[in-house]
Design brief:
The complex is a heterodimer of chains A (123) and B (499). Chain A has 123 residues and is an all-alpha fold. Chain A has one domain: Helix Hairpins (Orthogonal Bundle), CATH 1.10.287. Chain B contains 22 helices and two strands. In chain B, 76% of the residues lie in helices and 2% in strands.
């Protein structure tokens, strides 16, 4: 079991982070903590993609003049990194919108506690 | 001639204008509406032309930036995509016209940002329809979702809380979808849907593919509000501004359902989602549960918008049932239901918005006597309701008919019972409104009465809504009959070649 975890450490770490993130989003009462849970979830997925592109003994995917015989096996896969740049941008946009929501909610209700927000809305 | 560029012309006007409208509106706020309408009309025209081109010469493909697929991002318009694009763009064009007065009342001087968000939402949805790339689908999914969160958030105090909760759940959905795409990517080494399909056709064993399938469907299940992942929907639809829920209720979740269908049609090999991973069975069971749950919940609602929201849950579940059965006939039924439900929900939400515009009321009990006071609005509601129940020759009958036929052909008798039973349950909750509107005497209207929205006090003697609210609604209502009568043409020419 320990060997199995050690051999695929990034994937186990990803799974643990996803669960932590989901727990934060579901169980925490404070909306700020929910948002932080969301960020942990998104980061876990970015970690998953980046870990998946890793290759032992491979180099940076830059083709330069005089590079010895360019074979695909010699390079790390760059595509997941590019995808994750986009995913990070998407994540930043969502976080930005969520933070703007939190500011407005705080102005309107004077609290960011979910229970008391729902109570105020129901009234 | 190569018409591939039509694929990109569907989302492009919306995306470009989404950036331009907020800027232009700073100078002239009156320009926001005509510019948005122009973008929406342009996109509708591109969809119609694309559909015509597809019917003529088969699927269109466009390589974005000149990078040939599978390396570059490919935009593909086949029969199914063109069909859904036409439905989404034309319904939303009509809704944009019909909700202009609500937009002015609800957002006032912030029309620029408001229409910017509306266009961004539509750009994301139409992009999801035409893209042939799994990761690109994720980006468009998040674009449309972000715009929807912000639009729901504009709906006053309750809307703000609903908007934040929608954001939380929607982001989980997007994240799970992305994780699933990651599994598929590492299993196949490509993101192009056609390429993924080709590689999986050869070898779809391996747990990574199965995990990817489950994660993708769970993520999309949240976005399309499949029971039990529908919890964001009733609040979001009820508390969103009237100009917003009339737009998102017909089109938003439909495109999530379309994305699921795309996974069946052009990503996973035939039968994989039934035999190797029980995704189809899960969709079937959850769909049947959703039809019953949504219909029962709709019966007990006192607010018309909330009733319609639960009815949406039931109807999306119907689409999921079609995917779950998975035969070509069932997929045709699901696609037809995507169109029918978009049109009739747009008609129903438009008339609910029209009632609220003229009287300030949105409760089921408050429509008493409105059949006489607002004959056109209630006529549109009645047509939408009749179609929702599934009485021929309205459109709603035919998708349920095909669905029941597909159930019979597969020996899924539970499907037949639930689909037919859903008509009865729909009749129960729709007739609560119709009976009050036509048979009860009109309630005395007092300004500022309890139940009236604070922004729209009941106006004694107020009659029908203005013409520009009424005619888009009447077009949608008439479309439920026209599309019902014309369903054979649509099914044989557009849908059957597509699935």
């Amino acid at each position: 079991m320990i060997d199995e975890i050690a051999a695929r450490f990034p994937y186990w770490a990803t799974a643990v982070l996803i669960v932590i993130g989901l727990y934060g989003m579901i169980a925490k009462r404070s909306l700020v903590k929910k948002l932080i849970g969301m960020n942990i979830l998104q980061s876990a997925i970015i970690l998953f993609f980046v870990a998946g592109s890793l290759r032992e003994g491979a180099s940076v995917p830059i083709l330069f003049e005089g590079a010895p015989g360019a074979r695909a096996e010699d390079f790390v896969n760059p595509l997941p990194h590019v995808l994750m740049l986009t995913a990070i941008v998407v994540g930043v946009a969502i976080t930005g919108v969520a933070l703007a929501f939190l500011v407005r909610l705080r102005e309107e209700f004077g609290t960011l506690d979910e229970e008391s927000l729902l109570e105020q809305v129901r009234r | 001639m190569d018409m591939g560029y039509l694929a990109i012309l569907i989302p492009l006007p919306l995306l470009a204008m989404a950036l331009a409208v907020p800027v232009v509106a700073r100078v002239r706020s009156g320009a926001a509406f005509p510019l948005s309408l122009a973008a929406s009309v342009a996109s509708t025209a591109a969809s119609v032309l694309a559909l015509a081109a597809v019917l003529e010469g088969g699927p269109l493909s466009y390589a974005l930036g000149g990078w040939a697929p599978p390396v570059g991002i490919e935009y593909v318009v086949d029969h199914v995509a063109a069909f859904v694009a036409v439905v989404v763009t034309s319904v939303s064009t009509l809704v944009i016209i019909g909700t202009r007065r609500w937009a002015i009342r609800e957002v006032g001087d912030r029309l620029g940002p408001f229409y910017g968000l509306v266009l961004l939402l539509l750009a994301g949805l139409s992009g999801m329809v035409v893209t042939g790339d799994l990761f690109n689908l994720f980006v468009f999914l998040e674009i449309s979702s972000l715009a929807a969160y912000a639009l729901v958030f504009m709906g006053g105090r309750a809307g703000m809380v609903a908007g934040f909760r929608y954001l939380m759940l929607g982001t989980i959905g997007g994240a799970l979808y992305l994780l699933g795409v990651g599994y598929l990517y590492f299993a196949t080494g490509t993101l192009n849907m056609a390429d993924v399909a080709r590689i999986l056709e050869a070898d779809s064993s391996g747990r990574a593919v199965a995990a990817g399938a489950v994660l993708i469907f769970t993520g999309l299940g949240i976005k399309m509000a499949l029971v039990p992942l529908h919890l964001w929907l009733p609040d979001a639809y009820t508390y969103a501004p009237s100009s917003v829920n009339t737009l998102i209720a017909p089109v938003m979740t439909k495109v999530g359902a379309y994305a699921m269908l795309r996974m069946f049609l052009s990503v996973f090999p035939d039968g994989y989602l039934r035999d190797a991973v029980p995704v189809a069975d899960a969709l079937l069971v959850l769909g049947l549960a959703g039809i019953v749950l949504g219909s029962v919940a709709a019966m007990v609602q006192t607010d018309i918008r909330r009733m319609l929201a639960y009815s949406s849950v039931a109807n999306l579940a119907m689409i999921a049932v079609g995917l779950g059965i998975g035969t070509p006939l069932a997929l045709v039924a699901a696609l037809l239901h995507i169109m029918n439900h978009a049109v009739m929900k747009a008609a129903l939400f438009s008339s609910a918005a029209s009632v609220r515009l003229a009287t300030g009321f949105s409760a089921v009990g408050d429509v008493a006597g409105l059949g006489r006071r607002m004959p056109l609005t209630m006529a549109a509601f009645t047509l939408g309701a009749v179609s929702m129940i599934g009485i021929p020759p309205t459109a709603g009958f035919f998708s349920k008919w095909y669905m029941a036929q597909a159930g019979v052909a597969e020996g899924q008798w539970l499907v037949v019972v639930v689909v037919l039973g859903s008509s009865l349950m729909t009749a129960v909750y729709m007739f609560r409104v119709l009976e009050r509107a036509y048979l009860h005497p009109q309630a005395p209207v007092v300004a500022g009465v309890a139940g009236a929205a604070p922004d729209a006090p009941g106006v004694p003697g107020a009659a029908e809504s203005p013409a520009d609210v009424v005619w888009p609604m009447m077009v949608l209502a008439a479309a439920t009959v026209v599309l019902g009568v014309a369903n054979v043409v649509i099914v044989t020419h557009v849908l059957e070649p597509g699935v």
